[in-house]
Design a protein that fits this description.
The chain has about 325 residues and is an alpha/beta fold. The protein has a single domain, classed as Inosine-uridine Nucleoside N-ribohydrolase, Chain A (Alpha-Beta Complex), CATH 3.90.245. Helix content is about 40%, strand content about 20%. The protein has 13 helices and eleven strands. The strands form two sheets. Strands 3-2-1-4-5-6-11-9-10 form a nine-stranded mixed sheet, sandwiched between helices. A two-stranded antiparallel sheet has the order 7-8. Helix 1 runs antiparallel to helix 11 and helix 5 crosses helix 8. It is globular, with a radius of gyration of 19 Å. The two termini are about 15 Å apart. Bound molecules: alpha-D-ribofuranose and calcium ion.
Length: about 325
């Protein structure tokens, strides 16, 4: 008897970006995922570029059925900074693609998140919310619609790092862009008992795609494969490397193949005040079983499933097989 794999209801929160686009391709194409909605936030690029890029990718893979919500145009407190030095001036590899034919959903990102989460909970299929960007939208949801936030099945976010940083010597870009939002989301997960997984920089760079694999994608000829090839080869050229990470796509792949990622449940706080450390995810790996009477801070309230190691080739292969249109296992 063939048992169809139940597809996982997901919502992606994106700042599309090259690797967000790789994640959207995976979420839009893989039958193991039920992409219920996408919400946009400023991050890699200004919000208008993020919305355009997101609609372009969903149109490219014929997913006009997926509603796209427009969210926050800047962080809660920080001034907005972008990462166009990484993602190109248009935020998505400067491919010169035709403007999207799709339009955003009339609802704001917050209302779309609320409705999608509530519908999932009501049907007994709580959704996994996958922030791949600064967590401004999800923090606002926690404050504006706390009851909906509490109905989230799991938050699985790309951000932070236990031992690795990129935006500064201490912080990862998504959390550094809006540290208050990240702190609010971790606190709300703790208060509402929403399980949370952190796919941070400790694993982010593991799933790499090589030039040769890009060539095979191009030879495949499908629209998804050609866009995937263009996205990854942009990073090959920009960073003069033979390999490039699929970044955010790894956080989505983790949902499909959780055994490819090793996680440990650890207390996590976000540093908000350090001059040199603002935006750092402080992952507590001490052996605190013996008690913390000496520690004035005590354990962080947020217990997070932190991804500490990943099988990069396995994750990259899942993404490549999906881009090729292969029957993903
Ligand atoms: O630090 C990497 C993260 O920042 C990724 O989500 C990338 O798209 C950028 O948003
Ligand atoms: Ca991103």
């Amino acid at each position: 008897m063939i048992v169809a794999m139940a597809s996982i209801p997901v919502v992606l929160d994106v700042d599309t970006g090259v690797d967000d686009a790789c994640a959207l391709l995976l979420a839009g194409l893989h039958p193991g995922l039920d992409l219920r909605a996408v919400t946009c936030v400023a991050g890699n690029a200004p919000l208008s570029d993020v919305v355009r890029n997101t609609l372009t990718v969903l149109g490219w893979v014929e997913r006009a059925d997926v509603p796209v919500g427009v969210g926050a145009g800047r962080p809660l407190l920080e001034d907005p900074v972008d990462a166009r030095h990484v993602h190109g001036s248009d935020g998505m590899a400067d491919l010169g693609l035709a403007p999207p034919t799709l339009s955003p959903d009339p609802r704001s990102a917050l209302d779309l998140l609320r409705d999608t989460i509530d519908e999932g909970a009501a049907s007994g299929e709580p959704v996994t919310v996958v922030p791949l960007a600064p967590m401004t939208n999800l923090a606002l949801l926690a404050r504006v619609h706390p009851e909906a936030f509490g109905r989230i099945g799991r938050v699985a976010f790309m951000g932070g790092g236990a031992h690795v940083s990129n935006a500064t010597a201490a912080a990862e870009f998504n959390v550094f862009h809006d540290p208050e939002a990240a702190a609010i989301v971790l606190d709300a997960c703790a208060v509402s008992d929403v399980p949370v997984t952190m796919y941070g920089l400790d694993v982010f760079y593991a799933p790499m795609v090589t030039d040769a694999q890009v060539g095979a994608l191009r030879a495949g000829g499908s629209p998804a494969a050609s866009l995937a090839a263009d996205l990854v080869s942009f990073h090959h050229r920009r960073f003069a490397n033979d390999g490039a990470t699929i970044g955010d796509a790894g956080a989505v792949a983790m949902l499909l193949d959780p055994d490819a990622v090793h996680t440990q449940r650890l207390p996590v706080r976000v540093e908000l005040t350090g001059t040199w450390t603002r935006g750092r995810t402080v992952v507590d790996r001490r052996d605190w079983s013996g008690g913390l009477a000496h520690d004035p801070h005590g354990l962080a309230p947020a217990m997070v499933d932190v991804a500490l190691d990943a099988d990069g080739p396995r994750i990259a292969d899942l993404w490549l097989r999906t881009m090729h249109g292969g029957a993903p296992s």
